[in-house]
Task: inverse folding
């Protein structure tokens, strides 16, 4: 015997105020008696502080509790009955309404992060009584922000100019980089819609040391209020290489980065947690040291690298 959930939309993407429709599908070899069939909808912000993020944190685990967004139950069959052998489809529906969720909070967009996870689940339970184990199935659906609920009109995407030189770096560089000249300029979007790529351009105006690689990193900053402390963790979402090997001087290199859905959401600045993003441009130079550490973390300042990091505001349009 088996049980599964199937929604009417193959994408499983919904917005607040919309109706979610689906079916409970059972495949049985023999008749199955049940006491009740229940569909439970839950949405929560799960907050987790990983070990090593901020000193001694064991005492903070109890203070970081999930934030309930929505929790409701729908009785598809409230009285006892029997399911016939073969395939049976049981329809259900519910509304993603803020008036019906007990005023738990706003419908934040689905997000899968390292320390913060915003998840919406549908669970179907076919309850068979005390002597038999219930049949259950769980399915995640995706929630996107409703444009009508946005606090204000989003800022139009605009480019910010950046410069990478010896003077903009705070860490120790290779002697060749200190004595020789290097200058990289460009522009990139720091206000970006989830539906659009991050666009920009970069020009290597001068470099006394040959370039090994140019990478663009998308970073997320997850901050959690744990007790009286705010614990922040920065991690890499993805790395996009825009140049491999030494590049021609004064050549304009395009920057084009697609935002990965579920790993990126609109910037959130709520009370108990924050989800923010950054864009980092890393220039790696050819040197003996860089060959000794080919898999070094690009976020860590190294003598053979130079970088610039800019804040990135993500919004829904």
Result:
């Amino acid at each position: 015997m088996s049980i599964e959930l199937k929604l009417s939309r193959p994408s499983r993407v919904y917005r607040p105020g919309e109706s979610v429709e689906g079916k409970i599908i059972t495949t049985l070899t023999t008749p199955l008696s049940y006491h009740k069939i229940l569909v439970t909808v839950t949405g929560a912000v799960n907050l987790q502080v990983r070990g090593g993020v901020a000193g001694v944190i064991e005492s903070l685990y109890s203070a970081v509790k999930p934030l309930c967004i929505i929790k409701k139950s729908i009785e598809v069959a409230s009285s006892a009955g029997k399911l016939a052998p073969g395939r049976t489809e049981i329809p259900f529906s519910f509304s993603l309404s803020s008036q019906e969720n007990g005023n738990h909070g706003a419908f934040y967009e689905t997000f899968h992060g390292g320390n913060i996870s915003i998840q919406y689940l549908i669970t179907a339970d076919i309850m068979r009584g005390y002597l038999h184990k219930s049949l259950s199935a769980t399915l995640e659906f995706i929630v996107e922000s409703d444009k009508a609920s946005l606090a204000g009109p989003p800022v139009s995407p605009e480019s910010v100019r950046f410069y990478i030189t010896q003077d903009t770096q705070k860490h120790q560089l290779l002697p060749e980089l200190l004595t020789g000249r290097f200058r990289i300029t460009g522009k990139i979007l720091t206000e970006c819609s989830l539906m659009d790529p991050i666009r920009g351009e970069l020009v290597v105006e001068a470099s006394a040391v040959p370039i090994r690689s140019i990478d663009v990193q998308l970073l997320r900053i997850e901050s959690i209020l744990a007790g009286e402390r705010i614990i922040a963790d920065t991690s890499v979402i993805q790395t996009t290489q825009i140049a491999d090997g030494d590049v021609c001087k004064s050549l304009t290199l395009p920057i084009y980065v697609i935002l990965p859905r579920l790993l990126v959401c609109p910037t959130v600045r709520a009370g108990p947690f924050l989800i923010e993003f950054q864009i980092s441009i890393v220039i790696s130079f050819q040197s003996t040291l860089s060959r000794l550490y080919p898999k070094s973390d690009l976020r860590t300042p190294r003598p053979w690298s130079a970088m610039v990091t800019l804040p990135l505001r993500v919004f829904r349009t």
The first helix runs from residue 175 to 179. The mean pLDDT is 86. The first strand starts at residue 2 and ends at 7. The chain is about 5% helix and 55% strand.
